[in-house]
Amino acid sequence: MSESKLKYKRIILKVTGEIFAGAQKFGIDAQTVKAFAQEIKEVKEIGCEMALVIGGGNIFRGAVASEIGMDRASADTMGMLATVINSLALQDALEKLGVSTRVLSAIEMRQVAEPYIRRRATRHLEKGRVVIFAGGTGNPYFTTDTTASLRAMEIGAEVILKATKVEGVYDADPFKFEGATKFEELTYIEVLNRELKVMDSTAISLCMDHQLPIVVFNLMEKGNIKRVVAGEAIGTLVSAGKR
Ligand code: UDP
Hints:
The protein is an alpha/beta fold and 243 residues long. Helix content is 39%, strand content 17%. It has one domain: Carbamate kinase, CATH 3.40.1160.
């Protein structure tokens, strides 16, 4: 596949931390991260500029800790640090495959990652490096979904690819309801009004305000990232209008 055949030249890929846990419920499964890194490498090789936002839910979620009495802002800070751990795991897996990467952290920690500087991020992408955005937005009360939306605007990404374990967005949880049907396309407003689980409302609103399309797709099927980037109509497209 040549570069000119790509539908999206610059993308943000949002992966929830849960995926890093593999079959476990918690932590990092090395084989899963390795397989994911291999997929990223293949997409990189067809000339797509990739920035990644990794969640932290496999390690720590601020909202859960605040329910058991922790101060929410402190708990969220721990959540943001969890995303740094995941980002470093992915960086390691990618570099082992010979993919040049940079981790840019929204929370400064110079010994382990570069600080997030927008121009630096775009420069890395131009140079063909895979950029991993760690530390979320750097602010409590936000999520890594919102980080993906925000960074997508900042670096001029053409789309957000939201990786999940199912084929796209459904009208009910497909793991619980056999008859759940998948949407081919949705508008931002439909997602918000029907409270569909695509991304949180802050993240969706930001995309809506700036007309940034989101493709929700199944990461578990090998080659899917490449398919989306090439323009194959898989998953669910969330945008202002029709595909
Ligand atoms: N978080 C935060 N601000 C951000 C991004 C993340 O406070 O900008 C915290 C928040 O506590 C969240 C945790 O980091 O629960 C992990 O992120 P998220 O829940 O988005 O991860 P995912 O569900 O995608 O694994």
